[in-house]
Each structure stands twice: as structure tokens, then as C-alpha cells.
UniProtKB/TrEMBL annotation:
<comment type="similarity">
    <text>Belongs to the 2-oxoadipate dioxygenase/decarboxylase family.</text>
</comment>
<keyword id="KW-0223">Dioxygenase</keyword>
<keyword id="KW-0560">Oxidoreductase</keyword>
<dbReference type="GO" id="GO:0051213">
    <property type="term" value="F:dioxygenase activity"/>
</dbReference>
<dbReference type="InterPro" id="IPR009770">
    <property type="entry name" value="HGLS"/>
</dbReference>
<keyword id="KW-0408">Iron</keyword>
<dbReference type="Pfam" id="PF07063">
    <property type="entry name" value="HGLS"/>
</dbReference>
<protein>
    <recommendedName>
        <fullName>2-oxoadipate dioxygenase/decarboxylase</fullName>
        <ecNumber>1.13.11.93</ecNumber>
    </recommendedName>
</protein>
């Protein structure tokens, strides 16, 4: 982890910069502890040429019901200087997203990481539970008790669910209808993914071709929806993400199944056309594309759930069919004269 011995601290509404950075450190620590493959990529990036990293954004997923939605996570950060930057709607996924810009703070010239680097943007999504089927709504409402969302930030730091784990059949019911809702239901407020700021990297990983080649050579699966390299329609936002690993979960009925966990992303924000003639050493974050792109975001969401989750179900069903076929032929053979 990064050291928190800051060369300076600045105060703003809600507390100190040091406290805010400490919160991010603990969220990051939990995220890396719970996702071994993601941690390997995180360590790999920093090990190459002793790279100094900065973060573009941290992303969280929530369920919009009884105070568990975006507000349950965003209120703390907005009290500490974050502001709403914009929104993204995904009606086919019953999902709304908001992104938040960080407070304006002093960043040392060589600042990096969470210790004294730029604070990450925040992206928060919420699944509209009341748009799901009555069966899925009933399951979610059964577990998410009123006022529980007040513990959202603590849940993200600890990596623990606020509610009890469901049964496998309950989880499967939700997953077959809305994979993102199922992801949030079983992973809770654990960070969905973080994104490195590629435009701040200095060495090998400052080029996407090198990022893709290096990750693939080291055996990491990349999200190929919309192409491995996702490019916004204006060409100014570039993104690459890994696929989430499948980690075993013991459900409340004792069934053990692997479900998608978190993943990691690389984001580059190119210089806006009106600033293209600025000398390289004068280019700041404000000179680069600021917000997010709907087409990119829609494809990035595929990293943790779509098809990955259903591969598990399809595999289970295939195994059951194979066992049935094997049993049938075994019975025929035994009954034959």
C-alpha cells in the first residue's frame, strides 16, 4: 500500500484530506485482498520499470431499494468535496450510473498513488430493483432491511455484506434475470473495479499496445466486447479491462459455486482538440477529456457479469445432461439380455 505520510493536508467540508485518502486506502486494500488475479495485475503494473501509478476512477455497484442505492455511498464523498459530474443510463440493464469529480486539492509534481497523487473520480451504479420481476424483488427485499444502507461505506472498507447471504437458488433466480443485480447482491459494496490513469504512466504501460500485449503474454483474460480496446465515439477516451475472476462462494444453503468477482481497468483520457498545441509539460488533467462514454461503459460492464456468469449455469446444466445421458446408457446396458 501507499504511504499516507502526506507532505501537506488540506481541510474541506466533512473532514481532512488525510482521512479521505485513508478511506480510499482501506477500500483498495479490501478490493485487492478479495481479488487475487486483480491484485497480480495491480502489482505487475508497478513492478515494470518501477512505475508510479495514479488512478482514474473507482467504481461501485449498488441496489436501489430502501436507502441502499447510490446515495448510500455517495453522501460521504460529497460531504468531503466530491461533486456530481454526470450520469449514464442503461435501460436494458435496469441500471443508472453517476460519476463524481474529486475535490480540487494540491497535488505535488511527482504525486502518485493514493498517498499524494490525484484523487480518483468515482463511478456509482444502482440497479432499479422495482423494475425486476416480482420474484426477484421479493428475494432482494427479504434480505435488504430498511436503514441497512447507512453502513455502505463501512461495508466497502471491510468487504463484508450488510445482509445475509442468499441461497444458491435465490441468487440464481436474480442472476438469470439481471446479472448486474446478482453481482451487487453477492458482492455488496466491495469495489467493482478500479481504473489506472494510463495518461499519467511514464514507462511501458503508457501505450495501450504494450498494455494489451503484456497482459495477454502473462495469461490475463481481457474483455473483448466492443473490441479489446474500447474507444469513445469522439476518439478521446480509451479503455481496456480484464475479465473478472470466478471465485467460490458458500451460499446459505451450503451450496458452493463460483461467481464473478471484481476486475481492473486501464483508462486514457486524450487531450481535447482546443488544447492540442499545448506543450506536453503544460498539459494538465483539465486539458483532457473529462467525462465517460456510454458505448465504452456498456462494454466495460461486460467484464464482471454478462456471459461470464451464465457460463457457470450452462456448464452446470451441461454436466447434469451428461450425467443423465450416462445414466441412461448405463441403465440400458444393465437391462440388456
Amino acid at each position: 500500500m501507499d504511504s499516507l505520510d502526506l507532505p501537506h493536508t488540506s481541510s474541506f467540508k466533512g473532514g481532512s484530506e488525510l482521512f479521505l485518502r485513508d478511506v480510499f486506502e482501506n477500500i483498495l486494500k479490501t478490493y485487492l485482498t478479495k481479488n487475487p488475479t486483480t491484485k497480480r495485475i495491480w502489482e505487475l503494473v508497478q513492478s515494470v520499470d518501477n512505475e508510479k501509478i495514479c488512478y482514474d476512477h473507482f467504481t461501485f455497484m449498488t441496489l436501489k431499494i430502501d436507502g441502499y442505492g447510490i446515495d448510500s455511498m455517495s453522501s460521504f464523498f460529497m460531504d468531503n468535496g466530491y461533486k456530481i459530474g454526470g450520469g449514464l443510463d442503461f435501460p436494458k440493464k435496469n441500471l443508472r450510473g453517476l460519476w463524481f469529480s474529486p475535490p480540487d486539492i494540491n497535488i505535488p509534481e511527482d504525486g502518485h498513488g493514493l498517498s499524494n497523487g490525484p484523487l480518483p473520480r468515482l463511478v456509482m451504479g444502482e440497479i432499479f430493483v422495482d423494475e425486476l420481476s416480482p420474484a426477484s424483488q421479493e428475494i432482494i427485499r427479504k434480505y435488504l432491511k430498511p436503514t441497512g444502507g447507512k453502513q455502505a461505506l463501512l461495508s466497502s472498507i471491510l468487504g463484508s455484506l450488510i445482509w445475509e447471504k442468499p441461497t444458491w437458488s435465490e441468487f440464481k433466480q436474480i442472476a438469470e434475470e439481471n446479472e448486474l443485480a446478482a453481482w451487487a447482491f453477492i458482492n455488496g459494496y466491495t469495489m467493482n473495479h478500479l481504473a489506472f490513469a494510463v495518461h499519467r504512466l511514464k514507462h511501458r504501460f503508457s501505450e495501450f499496445n504494450c498494455i494489451i500485449q503484456y497482459l495477454e503474454e502473462n495469461g490475463f483474460d481481457l474483455n473483448q466486447d466492443g473490441g479489446v480496446l474500447k474507444v469513445s465515439t469522439d476518439g478521446l477516451l480509451l479503455q481496456v479491462s480484464s475479465l473478472s475472476e470466478q471465485l467460490p462462494v458458500v451460499f446459505s444453503d451450503g451450496v458452493v459455486k463460483s461467481v464473478p468477482a471484481s476486475y481492473i481497468e486501464f483508462t486514457e483520457r486524450l487531450v481535447l482538440p482546443q488544447f492540442k498545441d499545448l506543450p506536453h509539460d503544460q498539459i494538465k488533467e483539465i486539458h483532457r477529456r473529462e467525462d465517460f462514454a456510454l458505448n465504452n461503459a456498456d462494454n466495460i460492464l461486460e467484464s464482471s457479469v454478462l456471459r461470464q456468469m451464465f457460463k457457470i449455469f450452462w456448464f452446470d446444466q451441461l454436466c447434469m445432461k451428461q450425467k443423465s445421458i450416462k445414466y441412461y446408457f448405463h441403465s440400458v446396458c444393465l437391462s440388456s439380455p
